[in-house]
Specification:
This protein has 2 helices and 12 strands, in the order ββββββαββββββα. By secondary structure, it is an alpha+beta fold. The chain has a domain of 115 residues: Beta Complex (Beta-clip-like). The longest helix has 30 residues. The relative contact order is 0.15.
């Protein structure tokens, strides 16, 4: 059993997931609004996390609202997978990150939340494989998708301008 709050007791397990490697499942029903798990781990500065997972396909970094602090997650919460149609959401309460049930969750369901990734290098993929009707194909937040499109379009224009200049030089 995992005890999170004096009045709340729920059983969670980590096991194989069709979404990604391992996932977190509840063995008991969870009511909407319940705090399910705290996202824990060392608190680092953004600078300390640069390149931390450069050679890894997975990261467990969670940015705090101050924009400066990042949690390098470990423990059960680090295994909660992304979904574009999640049954949980995250909230920062008193400088702690909580995974909270966004709706009633049945026993046996995998817990998920929308990662809404940001601050990703343009061109780097963060594909989503949740397979829901709402799947947007990426774990990036909509603002980050728009930022990537702007930057990639700028890069494309620069490349085309450079090619155009090179072609004019060859003709001359």
């Amino acid at each position: 059993m995992l005890y999170l709050h004096p009045s709340v007791c729920m059983a969670l397990i980590v096991r194989s997931s069709p979404l990604h490697g391992a996932g977190v499942y509840t063995t008991t029903p969870i009511e909407s609004g319940e705090r399910v798990l705290e996202y824990t781990g060392p608190r680092l500065t953004k600078k300390q996390t640069e390149g931390m997972y450069a050679d890894s396909e997975v990261t467990y970094l969670f940015g705090m609202q101050d924009g400066k602090t990042v949690i390098d997650g470990f423990g059960t919460a680090a295994f909660v997978n992304h979904s574009c149609d999640p049954n949980c959401e995250t909230d920062q309460i008193n400088r702690r990150i909580w995974i909270i049930a966004a709706r009633d969750i049945k026993a046996g369901e995998e817990l998920t939340y929308d990662y809404n990734l940001y601050d990703v290098d343009p061109g780097d993929d963060a594909p989503c494989y949740c397979g829901t009707k709402e799947c947007r194909g990426t774990m990036l937040c909509p603002d980050e998708v728009a930022r990537h499109k702007r930057i990639m379009a700028q890069r494309k224009r620069r490349r085309e301008q450079k090619r155009s200049k090179q072609a004019r030089r060859k003709v001359a």
